[in-house]
Design brief:
Layout: H1 2-15, E1 17-20, H2 26-46, H3 57-70, H4 72-82, H5 86-92, H6 95-103, E2 109-110, E3 116-120, E4 136-137, E5 149-154, E6 166-168, E7 180-182, E8 187-189, E9 200-202, E10 209-213, E11 218-220, E12 229-238, H7 242-246, H8 269-276
Antiparallel strand pairs: 1-10, 2-12, 3-12, 4-8, 5-10, 5-12, 6-9, 6-11, 7-8
Helix pairs in contact: 2-3, 2-4, 2-5, 3-4
2-oxoglutaric acid (AKG) binds next to β3, β5, β11 and β12.
Amino acid sequence: MPELIQQYASCYKKNGYVVLPSAVSNQKVSKIRSDITTLFCKQLAFLGIRPSSDASDRGLLENMCRLFDESLERYQCCLRQVNKLVSVYEALCSEQVLSFVRHLGFEVISFPTDAVFHCMANRLRIPNGYMRLAPHQDWPAMQSSLDAVIVWAPLMDVNTEAGFPLEMIPQSHLQGLLPGITHDHVYEVDPNYYDPEDFSPVYANRGDVIIFSAFCVHKTGDHTGDFLRLACSTRFENVTEKTNVIRGYPSIHRRVVDREIRTQGFPKKEDVAAVFEQKER
Ligand SMILES: O=C(O)CCC(=O)C(=O)O
């Protein structure tokens, strides 16, 4: 095993990314998928829409589309919840992933920001929103250690060129931070600084994980057809990396709490009391 980790680490350092096969158990991926299904089905049931009981990718897409069509607002609330699921963190912090990151020399590991949920399906394109991500680097969205990594885990097999694979430019991480344009959601690399022909799709099956450098130029690949590709990712920073110490552990993400009471008059005393009521045996 240490030899294998060594090989993956060499590949990562050379190309700027590596696929760790079976780094997350099937059980952990299933738990994320069932949590996502539950989030959507509860909202559908509340709206009086019968959810599909099909647990396959098709059934999941169907349930997401039904909510998307009925209430875009509730659909987006569901997406926002996925980033916060404990099951997502449990998968992305699997022992295999953490051992690999430690092997790269991370002494004290932290999350520069929340996990991210990546949902790709033509039918789920939010009006005026974006679907695929343009060529970008992730470091400007962290600005922490120079060796920071992204851990990306698909929730289904992503093994065809037309299935929204991640596409990377091998060795682009060695160029450091390239000139680019800062958008709200991404730091898009200036097209004068890469050749579009250099992107290559990186395939990963359910349970595999792609680890890539925060400087690796990457984008969402192409798609055809009516299907769903889900993935979640997190970022790890190496807090005690030399320049991160010198720069005083920069932390560019701010917590914003909206303390306005959203549902006026809620909760009443009896709503809270009901939570603690003893169930009759
Ligand atoms: O899932 C995707 O297609 C894009 C993910 C990505 O680019 C990122 O996490 O930086």
